[in-house]
Amino acid sequence: MPAPTDETLNDATAKLIDVQLDTSLAVVPSADVEHERQVAIFDLLQENSFQVVGRDSGPYKLRLSITEGRLMFGISDRTGKDCAIIGLALSPFRRIVKDYFMICESYFDAIRTSTPSQIETIDMARRGLHDEGSEILQERLKGKVHVDFDTARRLFTLVCVLHWRG
Predict the structure, then answer these.
(1) Which residues have a Cβ under 8 Å from the Cβ of 115 and sit 6 or more positions away?
(2) Where in the chain are the domains?
(3) φ, ψ dihedrals at 22, nearest 5°
(4) pTM of the model
């Protein structure tokens, strides 16, 4: 199957209809992290573009987990039949996730105590790191799953939630 086109990606089957995170090994998240997870999943399910390369079996259900040092994408069709299992090395994400966590902590502190201009400066840095992480995720999924940038951004948020250790 050729790479999905924008026309293909607008098709009702090139999307996610369910997203689950395996957080069984994670620390209970802070209220801020839990809120980010809920918003990312809600936004992702409202609007996304997700197509497994070489498959026409969407829409898809996704289970994200970290197993043996790999980011795992367990992808199934709407009936739950497995379509693909994709494992990505975590090493390309480690630095960006660490930097993203540090700036997010600063951001969450700032929204409680700082001036609007200080918050805006930190938020711009946070969004820049988020964009960088999204681009890395898109690149790592290339040839396996086609996602648009907004979908990659929301998925990157969920990757960060999986990395969160408190």
Answers:
(1) none
(2) 6-163
(3) -85, 100
(4) 0.85
